[in-house]
Amino acid sequence: MAPETLAFYAFGAVAVVASLLVIAQRNPIYSVLLLIASFGALSGLYVLLDAPFVAVIQIIVYAGAIMVLFLFVVMLLNAPHEETEYDERVHPLLRPGPMRFGALLALVLAGELSWALTRSGDSGRFPAGAVASVRAIGRSLFTDYAFPFEVTSILILVAMVGAVLLARREGRG
Amino acid sequence: MTPLLIAQIVLTLFVFFMLLNSAAVMVYVERKVAALLQQRLGPYLVGPKGVLQPLADVVKLMFKEELRPRAADPLLFALAPIISATAAFAAFAVVPFGAETTLFGLLKEPLRLQVADVNVAILVIFAIGSMGVYGIVLAGWSSNSKYSLLGGLRSSAQMISYELSYGTAIASVLLIANSMSLTDIVNRQAGAWFGIIPRWFLFLQPVGFFIFMTAGIAETNRAPFDFPEAEQELVAGYHTEYSSMSFAMFFLAEYINMVTVSAVATDLFLGGWHGPLIPESFGWLWFLVKVAALLFFYVWMRWTLPRYRYDQLMAFGWKVLLPLSVVNLLATAAGVLYFGA
After folding, report:
1. d(Cα B257, Cα B217) in Å, to the nearest integer?
2. Is the torsion defined by CA of A141, A143, A149, A154 positive or negative?
3. What total of structural domains would you count in chain B?
4. How far apart are CA B6 and CA B153, in angstroms?
5. Band of residue A87 on the pLDDT scale cut at 50, 70, 90
6. Residue A91: how many other CB atoms lie within 10 Å
7. Which H or E run contains A139?
8. pLDDT (tens digit per residue) in A18-55
């Protein structure tokens, strides 16, 4: 096997196994760390796709900044173990309330995923090296995709204002 | 194996070895300079002028017992110092520290004095740095001690706050250099204006340099921003519960991070290995001198300035440094647009 193929399977295996373990974990801190491992493996896949910039940004933004915030929240909540208030022996689909809804959503998602994967065929190839250079990414971001880019930043701004508003206590400042 | 490959492997091992050594040297320098500034003698018993003191320290640390609190998370407690030290070593891999050389004609093709040549080097340093945070945060959490947890939380808050200004300062340099490769950035700084002033980006980006160094000190958790381990408040912060070599690994990581920040600052702002008098093949000498000067500055700062208050640190980061770096970036962009890169 070519080294690239081998690396692809290695990174892919790490990404899949780590992602599965994220939801199979009872300890939220371990879940966060496994998610970071999964992001790291994805970044490796980007390198194999000849997109070093995307790979590094994946690490900086997701594995670095966002996951530190996640870890921060989990640590502050100090919830080392998920509390279970239902009978462990009952099948998730038969449990009352939110659990049943969650299981239903998971089923829907699994159905959608299998549908998408079986029908996709050739899923939009992009020309080789299209995202290899920072220059190319920057150019398309500020010309072809200028509108979505700006709209996204406004969306984030709105979310930020909303978070500040929610976090602010009534009657102060 | 080609001679070039062998040379590359030797170079990698050499860089690893030198980074380990730099930590030892820095421990000695730190203690000697601190003593100098406080009119003390500093270490003087082990070896001539106490130069063997770091060796004695290492031997002492190795013979200490490895302790772990009973309530600690065993896996993460062991993993945290490893993450810290690995990230510190890995970050230096993409830093170039000299011009291409053939080792006095030994090699047919020139060898780059850089472990890994990546065209997004500066971002790689960033990415590895943001992984290093996890070492500190996990050490704080897994120790299951209030001081450690507070240290870890402070460290992550501080790093997030200063990473923005740090990145924006680097972005202004990238605008002038018109490249993301550190080797290209250094080579843009060759030569001199009017024959005397070296073409360092320091003179084009004085504000950027100030922001970079300030944020760099905050990122490496050094005084006056050493909140994650503020002795008077948190005993020793995130590494309170660590002993022996796992404690030493945090120490090692801190010093190596200082060396990396200084080396990156040298490449970005101080012209890297370019300098007068010495031929380019010996440019790494200039590089060493510049890095040493910045490291001395680091130590000097630590023993001169008192620690800030935590709210002052946050206010300074978000309300002074970040706006300043954004204005600097806009001004740089306008300048590049007007004068051309």
Report:
1. 10
2. positive
3. 1
4. 44
5. low
6. 8
7. helix A134-142
8. 988 888 877 778 888 888 889 989 988 888 887 888 88
Cα–Cα distance between A73 and B141 in angstroms, integer?
A: 12
The topology under which CATH files domain A1-78 is Four Helix Bundle (Hemerythrin (Met), subunit A) (1.20.120)
Q: Which residue has the tokens 């899923």?
A: A123
Closest CA to B30 of B281, B183, B233, B255: B255
Sign of CA dihedral B260, A138, A67, B161: positive
Tell me the C-alpha distance between A4 and A49, whole Å.
Answer: 10
Domain ranges, ordered by start, for chain A: 1-78, 91-116, 130-173
CA distance B169 to B188: 18
R_g (Cα) of chain A, nearest Å: 21
Cβ-contact B114, B186 below 8 angstroms: no
From the list A65, A69, A75, which residue is nearest B141 (CB)? Answer: A75
- Rounded to 5 degrees, φ, ψ at B305 are -95, 140
Q: Least CB-CB distance to A71: which of B127, B137, B180?
A: B137
**For residues A29 and B315, what is the distance between their CA atoms, to the nearest angstrom?**
30
In 3D space, the residue among A170, A164, A131, A140 whose CA is nearest the CA of residue A52 turns out to be A131
The chain A residue lying nearest B127, using CA atoms, is: A60
Supply B317's token pair: 């980061």
Residues of B in contact with A68 (CB under 8 A): 130, 133-134, 137, 156, 159-160
Alpha helices in chain B (DSSP H): 3-37, 53-63, 74-91, 121-142, 146-177, 182-187, 201-204, 206-219, 231-234, 244-269, 283-304, 310-315, 322-339
Render pLDDT for B17-62 as a digit per residue (tens, 0 to 9).
Answer: 888 888 888 888 888 888 888 888 878 888 788 788 888 888 888 8
Between helices B283-304 and B244-269, what is the axis angle to 10°?
Answer: 120
Residue numbers of the domain that contains B46: 3-339
What pTM does this model have? 0.80
